[in-house]
Structures are given as structure tokens and as C-alpha cells.
Specification:
- The chain is 69% helix and 0% strand.
- By secondary structure, it is mostly helical.
- Helix 6 packs antiparallel against helix 8 and helix 12 runs antiparallel to helix 13.
């Protein structure tokens, strides 16, 4: 949604709706299906999993069918997108699939090679390039791509913080399991503060910057006053999950309404 403003009248475009449907389910199924396929041990002991908010806790028998279903569901869309947008679209889609394979499967399995499991989250930003190509929109400014990358890093770290205990039990190595909960929260705070600076001085988007500043202030209280190094309970994680989803939806609407991420001031 980032490349759009309401001036684009995007809701009248067939490609927009096909792309939105694709990102909403088939692409998500590819990303999180492969993740579950390769994380059976960690998910089995993860109390926050096994629901529609945080993801499935599926059996090995069920997960064996996932790669086939991913292929069947994604292939028609991939053919359509390449037909519509050409070879550049093929390269973007190839990168998206390759990034997920490198992230999940041996011998690469970047998800267990800290800190690269954070850095590879830049792959999420490629969905913006996908949107640009499909809808024939101009390239996003570099500062926008930088901000989106920071956001992807920060969002991934939030998940790692919640999964420290089950990841350690399963022997899964992440940045959070290596440096601990408190230091990981501080790392997340650094990303948040840089995002606030980018939004404030790079885009003059004081609404989004203000929201992230409030979140940063809460994280400071989380680290030094309330939770410190203690794990969250499942009800607390569910509350945070719903809150993050709501804030994501509201920020999405704001980004499209304001168009500020398309117009850096330098």
C-alpha cells in the first residue's frame, strides 16, 4: 500500500485487487507455511502458537503437504503477474521465493545465523517493488525504502523477544536467545528511535513519528520499570498482538491518506 495515495484511484484497478489478494494470502502462505514447515520443534513448545493470531501448531503429517499447496496456490498468480509486468516482475518474485528458501532451509537457514536473520527481513520490503511493477508506479525514494527496512527489522525483533524460551528449548539460535531479552529490547528501541528521526526530519510525518515515539516510551518503561527481563504471559502477548495489528491497520490508512512517505523533504 505504501506506493499509493488516494489520488491514484487504485481501487478501480484490477491489478491492484489481484495484487492485494496475493499479498494477503498466497504470499503469506508461502512465507509462514515454509516457516512452520521448518520450525516444528520450536512451535511444539511455543505456548503462543496454535491460533489465528500467532500462527498454527500443525502436525508433521499436515506440514508435509504444505510445499505442494504453496506451489499450487502461488503458481497461477506468478504466471499472471509475469504476463502483466514482464521479466522484471519475474526477478522480483524469484527473489521473494529465494529469500524464503535461504531463510528456512539448510545449508543456508539464515533464520539461525544471528544477526543475519534480522537483516534478511529486508525481503519484506520487496513487496513494495512488487506493487510498483504491477501497478506501473514510479520508484519509491531511497529514504522510504530505508524506513521500511528499519520497520521490518523492528517487527521481527518483537517476535524474537516473545519466543526466547521456546527457541532455547528447541535449540534454535536467534539474536534474542544469544544476547537476552533486555538487550534485544534495547536493540529494538534503537531501531524505533532511528525510525522516529527518519519520519520527523526526512518526511515531516509527525503523526507516524509521534506514534512510534509513544511506542518507544512504552518500551523504555517495559525494559526499566515493568517487565525488565521477565517473559510476557500468553494473555499479554495476545493483547500486544491485537494492538500491533490494529496499529498496523491504522498506520496503513494514514500512509495512504497522507502520502508523506512518497515525498521526503531532502
Amino acid at each position: 500500500m505504501v506506493p499509493f495515495t488516494f489520488n491514484n484511484i487504485f481501487w478501480e484497478s484490477t491489478n491492484f485487487w489481484v495484487g492485494l489478494i496475493y499479498v494477503g494470502f498466497p504470499l503469506n502462505y508461502l512465507v509462514y507455511g515454509l516457516n512452520d514447515y521448518n520450525d516444528v520443534a520450536a512451535d511444539k513448545v511455543n505456548d503462543r502458537k496454535g491460533n489465528f493470531l500467532f500462527g498454527a501448531k500443525a502436525s508433521v503429517a499436515t506440514l508435509k503437504r504444505v510445499p505442494l499447496w504453496i506451489t499450487l496456490i502461488n503458481l497461477p498468480f506468478i504466471v499472471y503477474f509475469v504476463f502483466e509486468a514482464g521479466f522484471k516482475m519475474f526477478l522480483v518474485l524469484f527473489f521473494m521465493v529465494a529469500a524464503n528458501i535461504i531463510y528456512n532451509f539448510k545449508p543456508f537457514r539464515i533464520k539461525e545465523r544471528p544477526p543475519f536473520e534480522i537483516l534478511i527481513q529486508v525481503g519484506y520490503v520487496v513487496t513494495a517493488l512488487f506493487s510498483l511493477l504491477l501497478n506501473e508506479l514510479p520508484m519509491l525514494p531511497w529514504l522510504t525504502m530505508f524506513y521500511l527496512s528499519l520497520f521490518a527489522f523492528q517487527a521481527h525483533i518483537a517476535g524474537e523477544i516473545m519466543d526466547i524460551e521456546p527457541d532455547r528449548i528447541a535449540g534454535k539460535k536467534t539474536t534474542a536467545t544469544l544476547i537476552g531479552r533486555k538487550k534485544t529490547k534495547l536493540l529494538m528501541l534503537v531501531f524505533l528511535l532511528v525510525e522516529v528521526l527518519v519520519l520527523s526530519f526526512g518526511f515531516k510525518d509527525y503523526v507516524l513519528a509521534g506514534f512510534l515515539a509513544v511506542f518507544s516510551a512504552w518500551l523504555v518503561l517495559d525494559v526499566f520499570v515493568f517487565f525488565k527481563d521477565a517473559p510476557y504471559t500468553v494473555p499479554q502477548m495476545k493483547f500486544f498482538g491485537w494492538a500491533m495489528n490494529l496499529s498496523a491497520l491504522l498506520s496503513m490508512l494514514w500512509v495512504v491518506y497522507s502520502g508523506k512517505l512518497l515525498a521526503p523533504v531532502f
